[in-house]
């Protein structure tokens, strides 16, 4: 495969992810750029990580402790901080495994993955479609997060500008301003006046927005890697299915072969055998990358699933208890949380389905006239692929669409239990 073809098909697959990582303070330049650019990126990274994880997140944790006596306030505080705690782990996991993740990306992009086009088998179109799907869902997720942050900002600003007179209460003979923040924390700027509220409000919105972008950056990297793996598997489906036809086209033997033949000529057999070895090596690389991806992300998927279940349950409970202008916030938060878990399961399901179809593609190939060694390789490969590739939740259950439905039902069941238990206690 020529260099230009490599660049044209897969070498730019993760460009949008790299841009997001740079924007959200996760990118580290190694040796490919100037010293000044490295230092600027390092300073940018340090600023945001100090702001979010040193200055802001401890204030959220303190508020969870102080709100323990009020169930609704406590659940809202847990829900608000859940994704931020999971983000802290994702960031830690990313930086610890950064070189391995970059190696996976490089392996998926720059290997020897060239196959000729043949009728409906168009490798370039498969790559473009998979990349388009990953980018589309990343945009949807980013839009959900921006809508959530925008809704919180709009509601708070509207109340501040047009309903501020209703936010004052009398405390110890003094008039105190007590408008609710979009996310409650122990404010470092104090409270009780409109100015203190507004400073804390802007401080909180900036933190929430950048938190959301960070979550999108790391999650989109994960789903894009899964998307690239499913793209490779779809290419392999077509490559296995058309292996003999492409070899006939490559050797220009269409006119020399009869329509039906029991044994291919030696020259064609040799070409098919070599192409089969090439395809199997490609499949082995994909299997190796999938195993490495599983080892890197299995704990993260478990933590994210556990937190998403809790957040969906808490959001349902808060939605059932809310009858004011915060209802829009609760609905948006519920949708965004469910959508994040759906992304994991959706792209994990694509890998599982694509790997299962490898065996069918091998069976549908024109294997009858091929050599005995080729037939043995087909049998061995089909046997191996009876066990599909799975990206799992903590090595417990695979990330599939049915798993998402099970999780959603579990969140609703926990919500009904919590609602009934609180009703009895109340």
Describe this structure in words.
This protein is about 75% helix and about 5% strand. It has helices at about 5-10, 15-25, 35-65, 70-95, 100-110, 125-160, 195-240, 245-250, 265-320, 325-365, 370-385, 400-425, and strands spanning about 170, 175, 390-395, 395-400. The protein has a two-stranded antiparallel sheet. α3 (about 35-65) runs antiparallel to α4. It is built from 12 helices and 4 strands. It has about 425 residues and is mostly helical.
List the helices and strands and how they pair.
Blueprint: H1 3-9, H2 15-23, H3 35-66, H4 71-96, H5 98-110, H6 123-162, E1 168-171, E2 174-177, H7 194-241, H8 243-251, H9 266-321, H10 327-364, H11 372-384, E3 392-393, E4 397-398, H12 401-425
Antiparallel strand pairs: 1-2, 3-4
What helical percentage do the residues reach? Answer: over 70%
Biggest sheet statistics: 2 strands, antiparallel
What's the total number of strands?
A: 4
Q: Kindly report the spatial arrangement of strands forming the biggest sheet.
A: 1-2
Supply Rg.
27 Å
Q: What is the terminal separation in angstroms?
A: 70 Å
Output the structural class. mainly alpha
Average pLDDT works out at 86
């Amino acid at each position: 495969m020529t260099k230009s073809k490599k660049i044209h098909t897969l070498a730019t697959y993760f460009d949008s992810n790299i841009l997001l990582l740079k924007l959200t303070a996760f990118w580290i330049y190694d040796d490919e750029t100037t010293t000044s650019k490295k230092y600027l990126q390092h300073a940018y990274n340090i600023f945001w990580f100090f702001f979010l994880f040193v200055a802001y997140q401890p204030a959220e944790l303190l508020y969870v402790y102080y709100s323990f006596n009020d169930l609704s306030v406590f659940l809202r505080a847990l829900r608000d901080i859940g994704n931020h705690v999971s983000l802290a782990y994702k960031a830690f996991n990313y930086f610890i495994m950064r070189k391995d993740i970059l190696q996976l990306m490089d392996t998926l992009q720059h290997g020897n993955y060239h196959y000729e086009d043949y009728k409906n088998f168009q490798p370039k179109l498969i790559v473009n479609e998979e990349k388009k799907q990953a980018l589309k869902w990343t945009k949807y997720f980013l839009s959900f997060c921006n809508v959530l942050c925008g809704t919180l900002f709009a509601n708070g600003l509207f109340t501040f500008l047009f309903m501020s007179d209703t936010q004052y209460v009398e405390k110890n003979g003094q008039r105190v301003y007590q408008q609710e923040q979009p996310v409650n924390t122990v404010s470092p700027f104090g409270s009780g006046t409109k100015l203190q509220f507004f400073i804390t409000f802007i401080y909180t919105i900036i933190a929430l927005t950048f938190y959301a972008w960070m979550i999108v950056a790391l999650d989109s990297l994960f789903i894009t890697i899964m998307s690239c793996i499913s793209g490779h598997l779809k290419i392999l489906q077509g490559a296995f299915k058309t292996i003999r036809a492409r070899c006939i086209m490559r050797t220009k033997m269409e006119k020399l072969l009869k329509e039906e033949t029991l044994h291919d000529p030696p020259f064609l057999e040799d070409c098919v055998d070599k192409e089969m070895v090439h395809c199997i090596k490609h499949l082995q690389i994909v299997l190796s990358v999938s195993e490495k991806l599983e080892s890197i992300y299995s704990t993260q998927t478990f933590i994210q699933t556990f937190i998403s279940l809790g957040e969906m349950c808490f959001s349902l409970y808060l939605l059932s208890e809310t009858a004011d202008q915060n209802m829009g916030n609760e609905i948006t938060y519920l949708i965004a949380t469910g959508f994040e878990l759906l992304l994991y399961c959706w792209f994990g399901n694509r890998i599982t389905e694509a790997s299962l179809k490898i065996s069918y593609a091998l069976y549908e190939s024109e294997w009858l006239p091929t050599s005995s060694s080729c037939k043995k390789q087909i049998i061995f490969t089909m046997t191996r692929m009876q066990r599909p590739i799975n990206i799992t939740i903590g090595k417990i259950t695979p990330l599939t669409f049915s798993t998402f439905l099970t999780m959603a039902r579990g969140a609703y069941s926990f919500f009904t239990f919590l609602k009934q238990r609180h009703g009895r206690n109340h």
